[in-house]
Amino acid sequence: MRRDEEFSEFFTSRFDWARRTAYALCGDWSEAEELAQNAFVKAYAKWPSIRRETAEGYVRTIVTRLFLDSRRRGRDRERPVADLPELGVGGGFTDPDARLNAALQQVAPKQRAALVLRFVHDLSIEQTAAELGCSVGNVKSQTARGLATLREAYGEPVNSECA
C-alpha cells in the first residue's frame, strides 16, 4: 500500500506542473491534460523502479516524448471539439502570454520541445539532449532554429539573453 500512497502524493503535487509543461508544448489544455495523464499512467507502471529524486525528470521526459510521438503520427491535425468556438480564429491577442504561446505553436514540434526544456525548465544543453534522445549538436541547432522561428512568429524582439 505504501507504493500507492507515495505515488498519490507525487501525482497530487506534480500533476498541475506536468499539465502546464504539456500545454507549453501543445498549446491546447485538453491535449495537455491527456498528455499529463498518460505520462503519470506510464510513471505509475514503473513507480517501484523510479528513484524518487528523479521522478519529476522522468515524468517530464515522458510528457515530452508523448508530445513528439503524437506529432509524428499527425495527431496535431485532429482537433475534436464538443461545441464550436464563439470567437473566430485569428482574433487579436491582448495578453502577452497568449501572444507568446500562439507564436510558440508556430515552431516545429521538436524545436518547440527543445525550447520548452531549455528555457521553461532551465535544463542544460546536455540534459535536454538526454531527455530528447539526441546529440548536443542537435539540441543546439533545434534551439537556434526554434528561437529564430519564435522571433519571427512573435513579431517583436524576444528576450535575446536566451540565445
TrEMBL record:
InterPro entries: RNA_pol_sigma-70-like, RNA_pol_sigma-E_actinobac, RNA_pol_sigma70_r2, RNA_pol_sigma70_r4_t2, RNA_pol_sigma_r2, RNA_pol_sigma_r3/r4-like, WH-like_DNA-bd_sf. Residues 16-75 form the RNA polymerase sigma-70 region domain. The keyword Transmembrane does not apply. Keywords: DNA-binding, Sigma factor, Transcription, Transcription regulation. It holds the Pfam family Sigma70_r2. The keyword Transcription regulation applies. Residues 99-150 form the RNA polymerase sigma factor 70 region 4 type domain. Belongs to the sigma-70 factor family. ECF subfamily. PANTHER family: ECF RNA POLYMERASE SIGMA FACTOR SIGM (PTHR43133:SF50), RNA POLYMERASE ECF-TYPE SIGMA FACTO (PTHR43133). This is SigE family RNA polymerase sigma factor. It comes from Lentzea sokolovensis.
